[in-house]
User: Fold this.
Amino acid sequence: MAVIRVHDKSFETYLSEATILQRVKELADSISRDYEGKRPLFIAILNGSFMFASDLFKQLNIEAELCFIKLASYKGMKSSGNVVTSIGLEDDLFGKDVIIVEDIVDTGKTLHNFLPKLVHQQPASLKIASLLHKSEATEFPLELNYIGFDIPNKFVVGYGLDYDGLGRNLKEIYQLI
Ligand code: 5GP
Assistant:
């Protein structure tokens, strides 16, 4: 098992490249089956999901569209918490079969805040594909339709996920020691 350093922290290998790619292929196969005859729009959430989105998209054998968006949160005027806005969502979602592509769902707060903005546009359907899910950390329950791996509540880096800006280029996923 390889140990690596990112900034001031040590991480050990948790999911190998082959394990990740095999699972991504399985998810792509399920999605291709479920959306046969349709043309879903994948909305990948930057930055973390870029590698997962790319590998997942490559493995689809149906027609599909892909766009990338960035979520920005800011403190609202009231103390009710963070409001999430999206940058880059230009497609009109009305009547489309939308699949959100996330790197990791932790507490669920990000998607919980963002989903209503998509629902508002009246897509024909709205599903979520997340490579990783920390189910133990759930605070905002969501229906996750395609999950790569349910992982323990420990910080991970690699395969698109960063620790303070670094580690995204790693082919494997590493867990904090
Ligand atoms: P949530 O809103 O579900 O609590 O958190 C989702 C976001 O938190 C993810 O998109 C990701 O940016 C960040 N996040 C949560 N857990 C981890 C982790 O273990 N590693 C990294 N790199 N980011 C994480």
About this structure: Residues 17-34 form the longest helix (18 residues). The beta strands are 3-6, 9-15, 41-46, 65-75, 82-87, 97-105, 125-133, 146-150, 156-157, 173-176.
